[in-house]
Design goal:
Largest sheet: 4 strands, antiparallel
Helix content: 25-40%
Radius of gyration: 17 Å
Order of helices and strands: EEEEHH
Distance between the termini: 42 Å
Number of helices: 2
Strand order of the largest sheet: 1-2-4-3
Number of strands: 4
């Protein structure tokens, strides 16, 4: 039996953790326009735009750790095929550090 899953596009994510779980808060942020006004449920944040929708996914630390490897591999393969994905300098440094560690392994 297939479960009906809904598609959610996110252009921002916040990660939080406790000793027992890790939560990913996926958000769709933007700027309201005349044709797309701010919905009543939207949250306006100074300097980061308006959060139109949010979806929180909670998981165990074990599941989060298991997610990192295939996600890293998928992004790495994407960059090999389509080119480097640009990030803010502080994030790009962390990405390069992770990439170097993976490429050094025999």
């Amino acid at each position: 039996m297939e479960i009906d899953a809904k598609f959610f596009y996110a252009n921002a994510v916040e990660v939080t953790a406790t000793a027992f779980d890790i939560s990913l808060k996926f958000q769709r942020r933007g700027t309201p326009t005349d044709t797309a006004p701010t919905p009543p449920s939207a949250e306006v944040l100074e300097g980061t735009g308006t959060i139109f929708e949010a979806l929180i996914v909670g998981m165990s630390p074990q599941n989060a750790k298991a997610l990192v490897a295939p996600l890293f591999q998928m992004v790495h393969e994407y960059e090999k095929r389509f080119g480097t994905i640009n990030l803010a300098p502080e994030l790009m440094g962390r990405w390069q550090d992770m990439l170097q560690k993976v490429e050094k392994k025999p």
